[in-house]
């Protein structure tokens, strides 16, 4: 794979986003990530997955300059795929631990929110759903996922403000579960993964399904119902002008 690195050690798979300095999400990366998770789901030797990023970013979010080249129908295709991806991870049959090694923004935050447990580095790293700052709506299903993770009121605070939260502040909101230093991230994520991996897999899968099935069905319903509204806002004159100013330094 070109943009996703994968390794397996002691029944734990490590999946790493590796696309430039910012790990910006494009259609190719999203497709690779989906294939990677599907392969690991079929591997009985893998009991848990750690999802992380390479470098100083977990993920910048969508590669906006690339998507500005998309025709509307092509962007709808991607939006549908990406919504399917975070929903798939949200109900993934194995534990998924997010090891947030740096900035975790917009689409990157959605991927992190889909995971079962989030470990984030302290310091300069920030996590945010900042779409409102550049005039975009949110992926509809991601809002249901956010509400599941941190409750409706905190979801409003995160989504309405588009604020960039430090690991410590994000933990206070329930957006992440554990704050660690950069040097301790790999070990802390591995410890969390091994703890999940020791649990009886069929029992974990069943309980996760019971906990998340209702939310996942609502996520699918919302994505289907409000997808076109989100895309129309993306292509509106005011939002389109703001998107032109977003650059990604690779």
Description of the molecule:
- With 250 residues, the chain is of the alpha/beta class.
- It has a single domain (4-183), classed as Alpha-Beta Complex (2-enoyl-CoA Hydratase, Chain A, domain 1), CATH 3.90.226.10.
- Helix content is 51%, strand content 16%.
- It contains ten helices and nine strands.
- The chain has a six-stranded mixed beta sheet with strand order 1-2-3-5-7-9, sandwiched between helices. A three-stranded parallel beta sheet has the order 4-6-8, covered by helices on one side.
- Helix 5 packs across helix 6 and helix 5 packs across helix 9.
- The radius of gyration is 17 Å and the shape is globular.
- The chain starts with a strand and ends in a 7-residue tail after the last helix.
- The relative contact order is 0.16.
- Count of helix runs: 10
Largest sheet: 6 strands, mixed
Give the total of domains. Answer: 1
| Poorly predicted sequence stretches spanning 5 or more consecutive residues | none
Task: Provide the gyration radius in Å.
Answer: 17 Å
The structural class is: alpha/beta
Q: Can you tell me the CATH class?
A: Alpha Beta
Sheet-strand content, in percent, reads 15-25%
CATH superfamily, please? 2-enoyl-CoA Hydratase, Chain A, domain 1
Order of helices and strands: EEHEEHHEEHEEHHHEHHH
- What general form does the structure show? globular
What is the count of β-strands? Answer: 9
Q: Which bin fits the share of residues in helices? A: 40-55%
Examine the secondary-structure arrangement and name the CATH architecture. Alpha-Beta Complex
CATH topology group: 2-enoyl-CoA Hydratase, Chain A, domain 1
Largest sheet, spatial ordering of strands: 1-2-3-5-7-9
Query: How far apart lie the N and C ends?
Result: 19 Å
Averaging pLDDT over every residue, what do you get? Answer: 95
């Amino acid at each position: 794979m070109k943009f996703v690195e994968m390794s397996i050690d002691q029944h734990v798979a490590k999946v790493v986003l590796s696309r430039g300095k910012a790990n910006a999400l494009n259609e190719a990366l999203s497709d690779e990530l989906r294939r990677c998770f599907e392969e690991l789901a079929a591997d009985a030797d893998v009991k848990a997955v750690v999802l992380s990023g390479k470098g100083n970013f977990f993920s910048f979010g969508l590669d906006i300059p690339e998507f500005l080249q998309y025709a509307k129908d092509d962007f709808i295709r991607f939006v549908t795929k990406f919504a399917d991806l975070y929903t798939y991870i949200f109900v993934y049959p194995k534990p998924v631990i997010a090891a947030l090694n740096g900035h975790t923004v917009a689409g990157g935050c959605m991927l992190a929110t889909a995971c079962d447990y989030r470990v984030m580095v302290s310091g300069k790293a920030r996590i945010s759903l900042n779409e409102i700052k550049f005039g975009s709506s949110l992926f509809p299903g991601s809002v249901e996922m956010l509400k599941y993770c941190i409750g409706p009121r905190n979801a409003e605070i995160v989504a309405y403000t588009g604020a960039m939260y430090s690991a410590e502040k994000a933990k206070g909101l329930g957006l992440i579960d554990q704050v660690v230093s950069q040097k301790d991230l790999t070990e802390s994520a591995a410890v969390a993964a091994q703890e999940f991996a020791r649990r009886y897999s069929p029992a974990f899968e069943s309980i996760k399904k019971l906990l998340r099935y209702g939310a996942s069905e609502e996520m699918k319903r919302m994505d289907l119902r409000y997808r076109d509204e989100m895309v129309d806002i993306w292509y509106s004159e005011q939002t389109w002008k703001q998107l032109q100013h977003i650059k990604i330094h690779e």
